[in-house]
Amino acid sequence: MKMIAPSILSADGSRLGDEITAVEAAGADWIHIDVMDGHFVPNLTIGPGLIASLRKATRLPFDVHLMIENPEQYIDAFAEAGSDWITIHVEATVHLHRTVALIREKGLKAGVSLNPATPLVRIEPILPDIDLLLVMTVNPGFGGQKFIEGSLPRIREAKEMIRTLAPKVLLEVDGGVTLQNIRTIANAGADILVAGSAIFGSGDYAETIGAMKALLTAPTVPV
Ligand code: DX5
Ligand code: ZN
């Protein structure tokens, strides 16, 4: 089953708890939370304290996307805060395997993400040891960017790699997902579709998420 994960990066920051409640009521499956440190990416967002507060707003899984250097230093804190999934970047840690193991030791699901210019082969050795592969389809740091078109073959290739090496791994796509391209991205193999501005920038969350889900579940027309 394909799922929608609204990214609260594009939500109204003055009412984050209410925004989460609103997308939950609108049909969101997961809540995607972007954590940025001003080093790995040129932006700063939220930390474990705020995530712990937001935990009270919903029981939906918290999908925490760490765009931070040396994530191994913060796994404890993000686990304590109530994360369900923690995704780290392959470019941000030297000992990727150790950090993934640490996430799983905490009883959480572990994800690994790649920037658009990072060769997919970098995650091949770790694929059997993770729960989720997050393919970035914009350069991380900001919401509202345009989907990098060359990402489609990359999503297909990632799906193929998963099928062959670790079929239980979920494939998540993040960046520039809209009502216009979500179906193509899902057909390329994405299981979890992250969408920030396309949802929070729309007037009616239920209508937007409903339309996205309809596009995900409509039968594929052979081409
Ligand atoms: C970008 C973040 C994304 C971002 C997506 O660094 O990882 O999750 O919020 O925003 P949209 O959907 O607007 O591209
Ligand atoms: Zn993200």
Please tell me about this protein's structure.
- With 223 residues, the protein is an alpha/beta fold.
- Helix content is 32%, strand content 18%.
- It has helices at 16-25, 48-54, 75-80, 96-105, 151-165, 182-187, 197-200, 205-217, and strands at 3-6, 31-36, 62-67, 85-89, 109-114, 132-136, 170-174, 192-195.
- Zinc ion is lined by residues 7, 32, 34, 65, 174, 194.
- Residues 7, 9-10, 32, 34, 65, 138, 140-141, 143-145, 174-177, 194-198 line the site of D-xylitol-5-phosphate (DX5).
List keywords for this structure.
223 residues; alpha/beta; globular; binds D-xylitol-5-phosphate; binds zinc ion
Task: Please sum up the structure shown.
With 223 residues, this protein is of the alpha/beta class.
Query: Count of DSSP E strands?
Result: 8
Compressed to H and E, one letter per element, the order equals: EHEHEHEHEEHEHEHH
Class by helix and strand content? alpha/beta
Number of H- or I-type helical stretches: 8
Strand order, main sheet: write it out: 1-8-7-6-5-4-3-2
Averaged pLDDT: 97
Which overall shape is indicated by the principal axes computed on the Cα atoms? Answer: globular
Low-confidence parts, pLDDT < 50 over ≥5 residues? none
Instruction: State the distance separating the first and last CA atoms.
Output: 22 Å
Fraction in helix: 25-40%
Q: State Rg.
A: 16 Å
What proportion of the residues form beta strands (DSSP E)?
Answer: 15-25%
Q: What compounds sit in this structure? A: D-xylitol-5-phosphate, zinc ion
Major sheet details: 8 strands, parallel
Describe the protein's topology.
Elements: E1 3-6, H1 16-25, E2 31-36, H2 48-54, E3 62-67, H3 75-80, E4 85-89, H4 96-105, E5 109-114, E6 132-136, H5 151-165, E7 170-174, H6 182-187, E8 192-195, H7 197-200, H8 205-217
The structure holds D-xylitol-5-phosphate and zinc ion.
